[in-house]
Automatic annotation (TrEMBL), chains A, B:
Subcellular location: Cytoplasm
Any one of the GO BP annotations: response to stress
PROSITE patterns: HTH_MARR_2
Matches recorded under InterPro entries: HTH_MarR-typ, MarR/SlyA-like, Transc_reg_Sar_Rot_HTH, WH-like_DNA-bd_sf, WH_DNA-bd_sf
Protein name per its UniProtKB record: Transcriptional regulator
Keywords: Cytoplasm, DNA-binding, Transcription, Transcription regulation
Lineage start: Bacteria, Bacillati, Bacillota, Bacilli, Lactobacillales
Domain HTH marR-type: 9-139
Coiled coil stretches, renumbered: none
Length: 141, 141
DNA sequence: AACAATTAAATTGTGTACAATTTAATTGTA
DNA sequence: TACAATTAAATTGTACACAATTTAATTGTT
C-alpha cells in the first residue's frame, strides 16, 4: 500500500546513494597508492584529457562548485600534483594544470578502471546499460 | 586507445557519483520543507518501517558507520525528530526511535518519491533495471 | 570615462563520510 | 571468579559537498 512507497527497498535513490559510496570504498585502496582521493582522481582524469582547465570548466565537467574545488585543488597543489595559476588574460580565472609528478601518475591511473571492472561482476551489456541510464539521468537534471 | 580507458565518459563510476549528487540536489527543496537532509530522510524511512532500531542496525541498513550516524542522530535528536536511548539490557547499545514529531512527518515524506519519479524521465522498466543493477552491485561489494 | 551588472573564485558555515582510535560494557574461557 | 577478547558507540582527524555570501576583475551601458 501507500506505506510501501517509503520502503528503502522500493527506492531507486537509496541504492544509487549506497552503491556510489561502496564503490568509492572499493577504489580507495587503489587510489591510496597514488595518494589521491576519488574526487581528486576525477580531477586528474580531466587533466589527462586536457592540458589545462579553469576551475569553472572543472566544475562543469565534474558537477562540482568552487566551494568544493578550491580547497581540493589547494590540497592537490600542496601534494605537488597540480599547479594553479591566475590567467593573465583574465585575473578572475584560475587555470589548473598537472605538474610533472601529476603527469607521472597517468600510467598507474590507467590500471584502476580495469581492476575495478573485475571486482564488480557485471556483464558488459549491464555495464553499458547502467552507464546509459545514469547518463540519461544526468542529462535531465 | 589505452588513453580512452581514462576518459570520464567511458567510466561507470563517474556518472554514478555525479548522478547521485545531482539527484540529492533534486531532493533537497522537498526535504527542506521537512527540515531534514537526504541521509536523515533515509533514517526516517528505516524508522517508518521499524519502530526502533539500534545504531548498528541503522548502519547495516544504510551502509553507514557510527562515525557518521552518531553526530547525525544527535542533530536529529536536537531537532526533535528522534529519540536516542541506551538499551537497559545492554548498555553498549543505543536504540533509536521516532518522536511524535518525527512520526508526524510520514505523510509528507510519502509524497516525495512520487514527485521525484516525475522529475526523472525514465520509463518504469528503466527504473526497475537501474534498481536491479545497483542492487546487484551493492550485494557484491 | 563612470559605474552598474555580471562573472569567477574564494570564503563561511553546516552536514555528511569514513578510517582509525578510544571508551565502556559484555562475553568467553582458563 | 578473573581477565582477555570482543562488541557497540563515541571520538578524532581529514576530506568532501554545497548553499550563501564575499571579493575582485571584467563587461556592458549610458
Amino acid at each position: 500500500m501507500s506505506k510501501n512507497i517509503l520502503k528503502l527497498s522500493n527506492q531507486v535513490c537509496f541504492p544509487l546513494y549506497a552503491a556510489t559510496r561502496q564503490i568509492t570504498k572499493l577504489y580507495r585502496p587503489m587510489l591510496e597508492k597514488l595518494e589521491v582521493t576519488y574526487p581528486q582522481y576525477l580531477v586528474l582524469l580531466v587533466l589527462f584529457e586536457d592540458v589545462s582547465v579553469t576551475v569553472k570548466e572543472l566544475g562543469e565537467r565534474l558537477y562540482l562548485d568552487s566551494g568544493t574545488l578550491t580547497p581540493m585543488l589547494k590540497r592537490m597543489e600542496e601534494h605537488g600534483l597540480v599547479e594553479r595559476k591566475r590567467s593573465s588574460k583574465d585575473e578572475r580565472v584560475v587555470e589548473v594544470s598537472l605538474t610533472e609528478k601529476g603527469r607521472s601518475i597517468e600510467k598507474k591511473a590507467e590500471e584502476i578502471p580495469n581492476r575495478f571492472s573485475k571486482e564488480i561482476h557485471l556483464e558488459q551489456d549491464e555495464f553499458d546499460e547502467l552507464k546509459r541510464l545514469l547518463t540519461k539521468i544526468l542529462d535531465q537534471v
